[in-house]
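Anyone? Bumping this.
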Amino acid sequence: MAAEEKRRIRYAVIGLGNIAQVAMLPAFEHAKENSELVALVSSDPEKLRELGRRYGVEHLGSYDDLERIIEEARVDAVYIAVPNSLHRTMTERAARACAHVLCEKPMAMTEADCRAMIDATRRHGVKLMIAYRLHFEQANLHAVERIRGGEIGEPRIFSSVFGHQVREGDIRTRRDMGGGALFDMGIYCINAARHLFDDEPIEVYARQIVGTDERFRDVDEMTSALMIFPGERIAQMTASQGASDVSELRVVGTTGHIRLDPAYEYAGDLHAFVTTPGEGEKKHTVSKRDQFAPELVHFSQCILDGTDPVPSALEGLADVRIMEAIVRAARTGAKVELPPAQPPAHPTGDLTQSKPPTKKVETVNAPSPSK
Amino acid sequence: MAAEEKRRIRYAVIGLGNIAQVAMLPAFEHAKENSELVALVSSDPEKLRELGRRYGVEHLGSYDDLERIIEEARVDAVYIAVPNSLHRTMTERAARACAHVLCEKPMAMTEADCRAMIDATRRHGVKLMIAYRLHFEQANLHAVERIRGGEIGEPRIFSSVFGHQVREGDIRTRRDMGGGALFDMGIYCINAARHLFDDEPIEVYARQIVGTDERFRDVDEMTSALMIFPGERIAQMTASQGASDVSELRVVGTTGHIRLDPAYEYAGDLHAFVTTPGEGEKKHTVSKRDQFAPELVHFSQCILDGTDPVPSALEGLADVRIMEAIVRAARTGAKVELPPAQPPAHPTGDLTQSKPPTKKVETVNAPSPSK
């Protein structure tokens, strides 16, 4: 048995907020083939104690302890789920400590921060992947495949609404933490539009709604945008932290259309409704499953194999660049053009994988503590 | 029997294109209680002959004959379904000939034209109604009622996509006829947003796509817009004449949401999907029924009773005003503000009904020829 066991990537989870607790920590149970949880890092001693006990993790520490924990626990990779405004700092520190980085989206708050993160990980020869769980989700992949297969003709229109009511005081409503509807939720619509059109927008028009009630004193409750893609394709999207739960996207092609509803959830079934000529509407249901473990498995495998993770850091950068353009468009009330300066983020290409040798994985197999 | 028969409003149908042929001419069969078809006016002698025979209509004439036909056939009211660019002229001529006017939407191509139509009908003491069939359609009315009843909380977001493939050479792709996706289809989304929010937008952002293929050399294949409503509500919409058939709208409130899919069709069933707290999603189907006869019945009854038709001419004007703003926004790439200069178009108020006495109905009951 032992001889057959493969090496496992040893992870520290940094930031023990909602997404770590309800999604990523339990996901290690389904990623045992190449991943294990060995350390937890949080600013909250109570959470550290409790989650450490629950998941059998011995190496626990505060943000200040990050480098020591990486060293002591022989951490290969970190999963970063701290507030968005701290993604850059935490990525730079992890990279300096020679840990590979799987970072939650949005990658950072500015394009400059994203580029700094890419530079840091490149400099230290570690991989950087942004945690776009829907790139591993079957209903979304079904839509991608049907569209790329030409089944709805040429895609012309993308339309999406993503709504949710956040609680007063939620960090996702705090500007200093990188909150607001656009960065918290709009990124899903933007990423889906790019993914489904398989292209980058060249113009945006946008409006943001700020200060509607106590919850949204200094962040956007709602952001709506039009994104123009090459080939005269249009995406419209509205994301709201002050509306009831809704999570839908639609792509309309020249001969058919696809609707995902819900499109972005991870806590329930997802449905794809595909309408093609002659066949009418067909429903394709993907029952609830772990959308986070596949991210771990993929990232670990890339580390083990020395290959580039997809979605790469460029994927994260592309979305942040568009979100910054949307904020600018909303501020000025005028369209913002996006020069096609970026190398393509799809389908491959990871800037972090250019020159320096990838850090060797020192891990040997050990029983998963997350049992 | 004869004593019990009510007076019927005698109609001339002007313009025998698709909408008249497939929808309004057959609708008279379901509007016999107070409406009858007595004359047809068209530039196409062949259509006149054939449709005159089919519907048993004796009074037939070209556009040039309009005044004579109105006189000879003792026409009380005209239904105008000529190309959009001719709505104004035809309305003015009918009004001068003292016929009440039921005019297809869009009311006209410019706000100035709409105001001229209102002036003309007011001056001659005839009523003017714009043919918004969905104001009489049960699935749409269901959505209006649920929303006004507070069942989805406060409405925050409107989202709609309306797509269709037009044929090459279709008059709806001719600029000189008033074609294009915005005026032909976008008006449905705009009107629905205003109707469901029960308010007028104060800002628009827009993008139009022109010249994508041979069909769209000088009109918009596609128009997308964001409309901002008072109370920080947002509507996003995309209308396309170059995409597959899709017709959906969604209103997202603070506690629930409603989706109509299809939303704008008249040739099949319509479905309302209502999601409210606790109850989950409930589907409400309205099977295919005549959406045009109720317009005739309402307009005729208003004429008979001397009351104001709803949707009024102000309803038509409001949409045209927004469409002009959308065209301007798309041309400049910047937001266009709409001053709240208009008197409210909802729920009542018809400028045509102010001072002059309404024309007396001279009609007496006669058997419907459209049997």
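Late reply, but here is one note on the structure posted above: Residues 344-371 of chain B have pLDDT under 50 and may be disordered.
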